[in-house]
Amino acid sequence: MMFPLVLDLAADGVPVAVTCRVLNFSKQAFYKWKSNPVSVRDWEEAHLINAAIDVHADDPAFGYRFIADELNAGDKTVASERRIWRLCSANGILSVIHRKRVGGRKAGPPVHDDLLKRDFSAAAPDTKWVTDITEHPTAEGKLYLCAIKDLYSNRIVGYSMDGRMKASLAVAALAHAVALRSPSVAVVHSDRGSQPGFNWS
């Protein structure tokens, strides 16, 4: 926007009419902006940026899609996903997890070794656990459930719930299972989900 430049030049003694003519816009447009220099859209986007920064600070693993989900968690859509992407990109609000996508290539190797070797049977309780996160829509927004299942008994031995899918959700579920079962040695296996440090065994 060139209107602030008109103000700066006017302060240096350059007539407003001359600057507007050179920059090819009307004096009326300049004076309209001067009476209300911050547009409604600029005001809205400033609030969206602040809200996105708050969500991202809560969990730096969040990218623009999760941030958009959080901002639109109520009954009313605050902003489109594309608008959130534009604002996040322009302001450097990026997920700390970066995945390079190359067309036609399969996903890379697992973050951790698959200690189960795809063997989902167990000879004793609390030796092999599997975990996953599921999303459940509710009247008040999305609810995420992380559950840990013992492969020997096929029973849920720990879980946690949260309105946001963040790393602490998986950590809380594991802590709950350990507190309840106190395993001496247990392998915890998960798929290649979005929670860093909690992929594979």
TrEMBL record:
InterPro entries: HTH-like_dom (IPR025948), Integrase_cat-core (IPR001584), RNaseH-like_sf (IPR012337), RNaseH_sf (IPR036397), Transpos_IS3 (IPR048020), Transposase_IS3/IS150/IS904 (IPR050900). PROSITE patterns: INTEGRASE. GO terms for molecular function: nucleic acid binding. GO terms for biological process: DNA integration. Signal peptide: none annotated. Involved in the transposition of the insertion sequence. This is Transposase InsO family protein.
